[in-house]
Design brief:
This protein has helices spanning 2-10, 22-30, 32-40, 49-58, 68-82, 95-106, 122-134, 148-155, 171-176, 184-188, 192-199, 204-219; strands spanning 15-20, 43-46, 85-90, 111-116, 139-143, 164-167. The chain has 223 residues and is of the alpha/beta class. The chain has a single domain (2-180), classed as 3-Layer(aba) Sandwich (Rossmann fold). Helix 2 crosses helix 12 (204-219). The chain is globular and about 45 Å long. The structure holds uridine-5'-diphosphate. Uridine-5'-diphosphate (UDP) binds at residues 90-92, 118-119, 143-146, 169-170, 172-173.
Length: 223
């Protein structure tokens, strides 16, 4: 997949990558714009344990799931290697800058084409984005929560020719050091969701909704 993304960027094409989880899948059944984005996106990457479970029950030949944050790190390494810049959009004020500093340590040579936090007014956001778009980043990581981040990317696709963009949820919070990531053994066991829920108990509602979405996905016939 990385060579395909690299190729599209080299050709100056816009690329929208969806990192799909069961909640997104369910939301797309009720949200026509999100469904359109699913149909139009260039890559749909299953990102969570729930997606792996759905694929297994439904008999889809899924080789692996990749958490959005890991895909982002792979793309940042590619960006550093190719000297392509990346923009970080979303998160609370200061979070994207802190995440950017840590990312540059993790991926030496990575250039940032700017950061815009996710709590601007529409007018402020438009002003800040103009500066970022002018620098023509090759990767745009949007951390605005699902489905806002996917819709944000889709809305701005004309300004993002030659860029690959993906929604990364709470990844900037993790990369900034504001919240910690699950230990490797939990990630390998597909338990990252459990770790996040123990650290942020209010996410239990999201876990319950995810179980419901997984149930729906496995009981809904494929049309
Ligand atoms: N966020 C934002 N603007 C908003 C709402 C959310 O920038 O109006 C950010 C929020 O600060 C967080 C991210 O979007 O960094 C969503 O994180 P969450 O953990 O909810 O996403 P998930 O990974 O669960 O999809």
């Amino acid at each position: 997949m990385l060579p395909l993304i690299e190729d599209r960027i080299s050709q100056g094409l816009f690329t929208q990558i969806l990192t799909v989880n069961p909640l997104m899948l369910e939301a797309s059944m009720k949200d026509p714009l999100l469904a359109e984005i699913f149909n139009m996106s260039d890559f749909c990457i299953p990102e969570s344990t729930g997606m792996g479970f759905i694929a297994k029950i439904k008999g889809f030949p899924l080789q692996e799931t990749i958490p959005g944050i890991d895909l982002m790190l792979k793309l940042c390494s590619l960006a550093a290697q190719k000297k392509w810049s990346a923009a970080l959009i979303g998160g609370a004020p200061g979070i994207a800058e802190a995440a950017g500093r840590n990312l540059r340590n993790m991926c030496p040579g990575l250039e940032l084409a700017g950061t815009v936090h996710g709590y601007h007014t529409a007018a402020e956001e438009a002003r800040e984005l103009e500066k970022v778009f002018a620098l023509k980043p090759k990767f745009v990581f949007a951390a605005l929560g699902v489905p806002r981040q996917e819709k944000w990317i889709y809305r701005h696709k004309d300004k993002l020719a030659g860029a690959a963009a993906l929604g990364i949820g709470g990844s900037l919070d993790v990369l900034s050091g504001k919240i910690s990531r699950a230990p490797l053994w939990m990630r390998r066991a597909g338990l990252e969701w459990l770790y996040r829920t123990l650290r942020q108990p209010w996410r239990i509602v999201r876990v319950a909704k995810t179980f419901k979405a997984v149930f729906l996905a496995i009981t809904t016939p494929i049309s």
